[in-house]
Amino acid sequence: MRMLLIHSDYLEYEVKDKALKKPEEISEEQKRGRLEEVLAVFVSVEKVDEQNPEEVVEKAVAEIKDVASQVKAQNIFVYPFAHLSSELASPDVALEILKTIEEKLKEEGFNVKRAPFGYYKAFKLSCKGHPLAELSRTVVPGEARKE
Length: 147
Ligand SMILES: Nc1ncnc2c1ncn2[C@@H]1O[C@H](CO)[C@@H](NC(=O)[C@@H](N)CO)[C@H]1O
What we know:
By secondary structure, the chain is an alpha/beta fold.
């Protein structure tokens, strides 16, 4: 799994078109979203993560919590983003993993939004620009090695 973490004044998105034949079903309300003072986490779920989704969720949540505490962010935006890797997991597995990351972060007390899966979306982001405002993390299950 590849993550790009951007500490931002705000992140807002608007759903445009379907990017998959069967995107996640969403309500009218979910077609737009915005969070202020947010840690935006752009996530590409990778093929290697299919070996142990539970473990990669655990590692991803730990990394996100670590960065959130460093930048003192209570709001987290989980944003599916298929552009950080050339070895993507299947959409079904990716969606499940992203939903579980969202759930676990909520259990940890964060205010979490997740952008809809399987769509082209317009988005606006205002990066804060401090030294920890732009970070990337890679997590893989167990002994799996990234080539
Ligand atoms: N392995 C994966 N990891 C993360 N997201 C994934 C995925 N497989 C499919 N998606 C979702 O389907 C859209 C089309 O690839 C993706 N859409 C996007 O990435 C938008 N930024 C528009 O390009 C995403 O919502």
